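re: ur question from earlier - yeah i can do the single chain one, its not a big deal. heres the input i used so u can compare w yours
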Amino acid sequence: MKTPVYIPVMGHHVPEERITNEQLEASLETTDDWIMSHVGIKERRSARRDQRPSDLGVLASQHALEKAGWKAEDVDLLVCATTTPDALAPATSCFIGMKMGINPVSVDVAAACSGFVYALQATHGFMLSGGYRRAICCATEDYTRMTDYTNRETCIFFGDSAGTALMQLEQPKTGLELVDVHLVAVNEGAPHVDLPINGYFSQVGNKVRDYATRCFYDRSVEMLERHDLKAGDLRAFVGHQANLVVLNLVAERLGLTAEQHWHNVEWVGNQGAAGVATCFSQKLEEHAADLKDGDLFLLTTFGAGFTTGSALLRWIDTES
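and the output i got, formated as C-alpha coordinates:
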Protein backbone atom coordinates (compact mmCIF):
# COMPACT_ATOMS: atom_id res chain seq x y z
CA MET A 1 0.00 0.00 0.00
CA LYS A 2 1.56 3.30 -1.11
CA THR A 3 -0.09 5.19 1.75
CA PRO A 4 -0.29 3.07 4.88
CA VAL A 5 -3.02 3.13 7.51
CA TYR A 6 -2.29 2.10 11.07
CA ILE A 7 -4.03 0.09 13.79
CA PRO A 8 -3.03 1.39 17.22
CA VAL A 9 -5.07 -1.26 19.07
CA MET A 10 -7.44 -4.18 18.62
CA GLY A 11 -10.41 -5.00 20.83
CA HIS A 12 -12.77 -7.96 21.16
CA HIS A 13 -15.80 -9.30 22.96
CA VAL A 14 -16.50 -13.00 23.47
CA PRO A 15 -19.79 -13.87 25.24
CA GLU A 16 -19.68 -15.90 28.44
CA GLU A 17 -22.42 -18.40 27.58
CA ARG A 18 -21.11 -21.67 26.16
CA ILE A 19 -22.50 -24.45 23.97
CA THR A 20 -20.36 -27.51 24.70
CA ASN A 21 -19.97 -30.76 22.82
CA GLU A 22 -21.56 -32.52 25.79
CA GLN A 23 -24.67 -30.37 25.37
CA LEU A 24 -24.85 -31.27 21.68
CA GLU A 25 -24.39 -34.96 22.51
CA ALA A 26 -27.57 -34.80 24.61
CA SER A 27 -29.75 -33.84 21.63
CA LEU A 28 -27.91 -35.12 18.55
CA GLU A 29 -26.45 -38.36 17.26
CA THR A 30 -22.86 -37.22 17.71
CA THR A 31 -20.06 -37.45 20.26
CA ASP A 32 -17.34 -35.23 21.61
CA ASP A 33 -14.73 -37.57 20.09
CA TRP A 34 -16.31 -37.32 16.62
CA ILE A 35 -16.59 -33.53 16.73
CA MET A 36 -13.01 -33.10 17.96
CA SER A 37 -11.61 -35.48 15.34
CA HIS A 38 -13.50 -33.88 12.45
CA VAL A 39 -13.58 -30.14 13.26
CA GLY A 40 -11.55 -29.68 16.45
CA ILE A 41 -14.14 -27.55 18.25
CA LYS A 42 -14.71 -28.18 21.97
CA GLU A 43 -17.21 -25.40 22.70
CA ARG A 44 -18.83 -22.35 21.15
CA ARG A 45 -19.81 -18.99 22.64
CA SER A 46 -23.39 -17.74 22.45
CA ALA A 47 -24.76 -14.22 22.76
CA ARG A 48 -27.69 -13.66 25.08
CA ARG A 49 -31.05 -13.75 23.33
CA ASP A 50 -31.59 -10.09 24.16
CA GLN A 51 -28.36 -9.16 22.35
CA ARG A 52 -27.92 -8.36 18.69
CA PRO A 53 -24.73 -8.26 16.60
CA SER A 54 -24.58 -4.49 17.12
CA ASP A 55 -24.44 -5.04 20.90
CA LEU A 56 -21.43 -7.33 20.51
CA GLY A 57 -19.84 -4.80 18.14
CA VAL A 58 -20.33 -2.02 20.68
CA LEU A 59 -18.62 -4.07 23.41
CA ALA A 60 -15.64 -4.93 21.19
CA SER A 61 -15.32 -1.32 20.02
CA GLN A 62 -15.52 0.04 23.56
CA HIS A 63 -12.78 -2.40 24.57
CA ALA A 64 -10.58 -1.02 21.80
CA LEU A 65 -11.39 2.63 22.56
CA GLU A 66 -10.50 2.15 26.23
CA LYS A 67 -7.16 0.57 25.32
CA ALA A 68 -6.35 3.39 22.89
CA GLY A 69 -7.54 6.20 25.12
CA TRP A 70 -9.81 7.50 22.36
CA LYS A 71 -13.12 9.19 22.94
CA ALA A 72 -15.95 7.68 20.92
CA GLU A 73 -16.69 11.07 19.37
CA ASP A 74 -13.17 11.11 17.90
CA VAL A 75 -14.30 8.44 15.41
CA ASP A 76 -15.39 9.80 12.01
CA LEU A 77 -15.81 6.48 10.13
CA LEU A 78 -17.37 3.19 11.22
CA VAL A 79 -17.15 0.11 8.99
CA CYS A 80 -18.83 -3.12 10.13
CA ALA A 81 -18.39 -6.57 8.59
CA THR A 82 -21.23 -8.98 9.32
CA THR A 83 -23.25 -11.74 7.71
CA THR A 84 -25.78 -11.82 10.57
CA PRO A 85 -26.93 -8.17 10.63
CA ASP A 86 -29.39 -6.69 13.08
CA ALA A 87 -31.72 -6.03 10.13
CA LEU A 88 -31.66 -5.83 6.34
CA ALA A 89 -31.81 -2.06 6.83
CA PRO A 90 -30.38 0.04 8.28
CA ALA A 91 -26.77 -1.09 8.38
CA THR A 92 -25.58 -2.74 11.58
CA SER A 93 -22.88 -0.04 11.71
CA CYS A 94 -25.67 2.52 12.16
CA PHE A 95 -26.99 0.61 15.17
CA ILE A 96 -23.46 0.42 16.62
CA GLY A 97 -23.03 4.18 16.20
CA MET A 98 -26.46 4.88 17.72
CA LYS A 99 -25.75 2.71 20.77
CA MET A 100 -22.37 4.42 21.24
CA GLY A 101 -23.96 7.85 20.89
CA ILE A 102 -21.84 8.86 17.88
CA ASN A 103 -22.51 9.79 14.26
CA PRO A 104 -19.56 8.73 12.10
CA VAL A 105 -20.03 7.86 8.45
CA SER A 106 -21.31 4.28 8.76
CA VAL A 107 -21.35 1.41 6.29
CA ASP A 108 -21.52 -2.40 6.35
CA VAL A 109 -19.41 -4.90 4.42
CA ALA A 110 -20.99 -8.26 3.53
CA ALA A 111 -18.25 -10.69 2.51
CA ALA A 112 -19.24 -13.62 4.72
CA CYS A 113 -16.36 -15.10 6.71
CA SER A 114 -13.82 -13.00 4.79
CA GLY A 115 -15.58 -9.87 6.01
CA PHE A 116 -12.92 -8.55 8.38
CA VAL A 117 -10.14 -8.60 5.79
CA TYR A 118 -12.48 -7.05 3.20
CA ALA A 119 -13.44 -4.41 5.79
CA LEU A 120 -9.77 -3.57 6.42
CA GLN A 121 -9.41 -2.83 2.70
CA ALA A 122 -12.67 -0.86 2.61
CA THR A 123 -11.72 1.21 5.66
CA HIS A 124 -8.30 1.94 4.17
CA GLY A 125 -9.92 3.13 0.95
CA PHE A 126 -12.54 5.26 2.70
CA MET A 127 -9.89 6.90 4.87
CA LEU A 128 -7.63 7.83 1.98
CA SER A 129 -10.36 8.96 -0.40
CA GLY A 130 -12.57 10.68 2.16
CA GLY A 131 -10.00 12.17 4.50
CA TYR A 132 -11.28 10.32 7.58
CA ARG A 133 -8.64 10.29 10.28
CA ARG A 134 -9.96 7.85 12.89
CA ALA A 135 -12.07 4.79 12.19
CA ILE A 136 -13.63 1.77 13.80
CA CYS A 137 -13.33 -1.37 11.67
CA CYS A 138 -15.52 -3.95 13.36
CA ALA A 139 -16.57 -7.52 12.61
CA THR A 140 -19.50 -8.89 14.58
CA GLU A 141 -21.56 -12.06 14.26
CA ASP A 142 -24.47 -13.75 16.04
CA TYR A 143 -24.50 -17.06 14.19
CA THR A 144 -26.16 -19.07 16.94
CA ARG A 145 -29.53 -17.48 16.09
CA MET A 146 -29.01 -18.53 12.45
CA THR A 147 -28.17 -22.15 13.30
CA ASP A 148 -30.49 -25.16 13.16
CA TYR A 149 -29.66 -27.20 16.27
CA THR A 150 -31.35 -30.28 14.85
CA ASN A 151 -28.82 -30.35 11.98
CA ARG A 152 -25.62 -31.96 13.21
CA GLU A 153 -23.80 -31.09 9.97
CA THR A 154 -23.86 -27.37 10.80
CA CYS A 155 -24.63 -26.79 14.47
CA ILE A 156 -21.28 -28.22 15.60
CA PHE A 157 -19.53 -25.17 14.15
CA PHE A 158 -20.94 -21.80 15.09
CA GLY A 159 -20.35 -19.29 17.87
CA ASP A 160 -20.81 -15.57 18.43
CA SER A 161 -18.29 -12.77 18.99
CA ALA A 162 -17.03 -9.40 17.79
CA GLY A 163 -13.61 -7.95 17.07
CA THR A 164 -12.55 -4.36 16.35
CA ALA A 165 -9.51 -2.67 14.86
CA LEU A 166 -9.16 1.04 15.44
CA MET A 167 -7.55 2.65 12.40
CA GLN A 168 -5.78 5.97 11.96
CA LEU A 169 -3.60 7.82 9.45
CA GLU A 170 -0.85 8.76 11.94
CA GLN A 171 1.81 6.20 12.81
CA PRO A 172 1.41 5.17 16.48
CA LYS A 173 4.29 4.62 18.88
CA THR A 174 3.16 1.01 19.18
CA GLY A 175 0.64 -0.80 17.03
CA LEU A 176 0.24 -2.26 13.56
CA GLU A 177 0.84 -1.04 10.04
CA LEU A 178 -1.54 -2.41 7.42
CA VAL A 179 1.09 -3.34 4.85
CA ASP A 180 -1.04 -5.00 2.18
CA VAL A 181 -4.41 -6.57 1.44
CA HIS A 182 -5.07 -8.97 -1.44
CA LEU A 183 -8.66 -10.02 -2.19
CA VAL A 184 -10.01 -12.66 -4.57
CA ALA A 185 -13.52 -13.82 -5.50
CA VAL A 186 -14.32 -17.34 -6.71
CA ASN A 187 -17.97 -16.71 -7.55
CA GLU A 188 -18.65 -20.18 -8.95
CA GLY A 189 -18.86 -21.17 -5.29
CA ALA A 190 -21.92 -18.98 -4.62
CA PRO A 191 -24.43 -21.90 -4.60
CA HIS A 192 -22.43 -23.94 -2.09
CA VAL A 193 -23.08 -21.87 1.07
CA ASP A 194 -26.44 -20.34 1.89
CA LEU A 195 -27.94 -18.23 4.66
CA PRO A 196 -31.43 -17.27 3.41
CA ILE A 197 -33.53 -14.48 4.89
CA ASN A 198 -35.44 -15.92 7.87
CA GLY A 199 -33.65 -19.23 7.36
CA TYR A 200 -30.74 -21.28 8.69
CA PHE A 201 -27.16 -21.65 7.52
CA SER A 202 -26.48 -24.53 5.12
CA GLN A 203 -23.51 -25.64 3.05
CA VAL A 204 -22.27 -28.36 0.72
CA GLY A 205 -19.64 -29.50 3.17
CA ASN A 206 -17.23 -31.43 0.93
CA LYS A 207 -17.08 -28.70 -1.71
CA VAL A 208 -16.59 -25.95 0.86
CA ARG A 209 -13.83 -27.88 2.63
CA ASP A 210 -11.96 -28.51 -0.64
CA TYR A 211 -12.19 -24.87 -1.75
CA ALA A 212 -11.36 -23.56 1.72
CA THR A 213 -8.24 -25.67 2.10
CA ARG A 214 -6.98 -24.65 -1.33
CA CYS A 215 -7.88 -20.96 -0.96
CA PHE A 216 -6.36 -20.68 2.52
CA TYR A 217 -3.08 -21.97 1.15
CA ASP A 218 -3.13 -20.09 -2.15
CA ARG A 219 -3.95 -16.69 -0.63
CA SER A 220 -1.29 -17.13 2.03
CA VAL A 221 1.41 -18.08 -0.48
CA GLU A 222 0.40 -15.25 -2.82
CA MET A 223 0.79 -12.67 -0.06
CA LEU A 224 4.14 -14.07 1.01
CA GLU A 225 5.40 -14.04 -2.59
CA ARG A 226 4.17 -10.45 -3.14
CA HIS A 227 6.61 -9.38 -0.40
CA ASP A 228 9.42 -11.89 -1.01
CA LEU A 229 8.72 -13.59 2.32
CA LYS A 230 8.73 -17.15 3.58
CA ALA A 231 6.49 -18.66 6.25
CA GLY A 232 9.39 -18.58 8.69
CA ASP A 233 9.47 -14.78 8.44
CA LEU A 234 6.04 -14.51 10.07
CA ARG A 235 5.55 -13.86 13.75
CA ALA A 236 2.10 -15.43 13.43
CA PHE A 237 -0.58 -16.66 11.04
CA VAL A 238 -4.28 -16.19 11.83
CA GLY A 239 -6.78 -17.90 9.54
CA HIS A 240 -10.55 -17.64 9.46
CA GLN A 241 -11.58 -19.62 12.51
CA ALA A 242 -13.68 -22.15 10.61
CA ASN A 243 -12.41 -25.54 11.65
CA LEU A 244 -9.25 -26.39 13.58
CA VAL A 245 -8.61 -29.55 11.58
CA VAL A 246 -8.55 -27.58 8.30
CA LEU A 247 -6.48 -24.77 9.85
CA ASN A 248 -3.91 -27.25 11.14
CA LEU A 249 -3.64 -28.85 7.68
CA VAL A 250 -3.02 -25.44 6.10
CA ALA A 251 -0.49 -24.44 8.77
CA GLU A 252 1.39 -27.70 8.28
CA ARG A 253 1.41 -27.29 4.50
CA LEU A 254 2.74 -23.73 4.85
CA GLY A 255 5.49 -24.97 7.14
CA LEU A 256 4.37 -22.98 10.19
CA THR A 257 5.34 -23.93 13.72
CA ALA A 258 2.76 -24.38 16.46
CA GLU A 259 3.93 -21.09 17.99
CA GLN A 260 3.24 -19.27 14.71
CA HIS A 261 -0.29 -20.63 14.36
CA TRP A 262 -2.73 -18.53 16.40
CA HIS A 263 -6.28 -19.85 16.82
CA ASN A 264 -9.28 -19.72 19.17
CA VAL A 265 -11.85 -21.76 17.22
CA GLU A 266 -11.63 -24.71 19.60
CA TRP A 267 -13.07 -22.60 22.44
CA VAL A 268 -15.21 -20.01 20.62
CA GLY A 269 -16.36 -21.82 17.48
CA ASN A 270 -16.64 -20.60 13.91
CA GLN A 271 -17.45 -16.91 14.40
CA GLY A 272 -17.87 -15.97 10.76
CA ALA A 273 -16.25 -12.64 9.89
CA ALA A 274 -15.45 -11.96 13.56
CA GLY A 275 -13.23 -14.98 14.19
CA VAL A 276 -10.00 -13.74 12.67
CA ALA A 277 -10.47 -10.39 14.46
CA THR A 278 -11.20 -11.83 17.91
CA CYS A 279 -8.38 -14.34 17.66
CA PHE A 280 -5.88 -11.70 16.53
CA SER A 281 -6.97 -9.31 19.28
CA GLN A 282 -6.83 -11.98 21.99
CA LYS A 283 -3.42 -13.24 20.95
CA LEU A 284 -1.92 -9.75 20.65
CA GLU A 285 -2.92 -9.18 24.26
CA GLU A 286 -1.51 -12.54 25.36
CA HIS A 287 1.81 -11.89 23.61
CA ALA A 288 2.07 -8.16 24.36
CA ALA A 289 5.27 -8.59 26.36
CA ASP A 290 7.18 -10.36 23.58
CA LEU A 291 6.08 -8.47 20.45
CA LYS A 292 9.00 -6.89 18.60
CA ASP A 293 9.26 -4.05 16.13
CA GLY A 294 9.00 -5.51 12.64
CA ASP A 295 7.06 -8.64 13.60
CA LEU A 296 4.87 -9.71 10.65
CA PHE A 297 1.35 -11.12 10.83
CA LEU A 298 -0.64 -12.80 8.09
CA LEU A 299 -4.44 -12.93 8.26
CA THR A 300 -6.05 -15.22 5.68
CA THR A 301 -9.77 -15.76 5.21
CA PHE A 302 -12.27 -17.76 3.22
CA GLY A 303 -16.05 -17.35 3.13
CA ALA A 304 -19.28 -17.89 1.24
CA GLY A 305 -19.33 -16.54 -2.28
CA PHE A 306 -16.58 -17.68 -2.34
CA THR A 307 -14.75 -14.69 -0.90
CA THR A 308 -11.13 -15.06 0.08
CA GLY A 309 -8.21 -12.81 0.89
CA SER A 310 -5.17 -12.03 3.00
CA ALA A 311 -3.87 -9.07 4.97
CA LEU A 312 -0.23 -8.53 5.91
CA LEU A 313 0.48 -6.42 8.99
CA ARG A 314 3.70 -5.25 10.64
CA TRP A 315 4.17 -4.55 14.34
CA ILE A 316 5.52 -1.08 15.16
CA ASP A 317 7.36 -0.33 18.41
CA THR A 318 9.28 2.93 18.45
CA GLU A 319 9.62 2.90 22.25
CA SER A 320 11.76 -0.21 22.75
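The CA atoms of residues 216 and 300 lie 6 Å apart. not sure if urs matches, ping me
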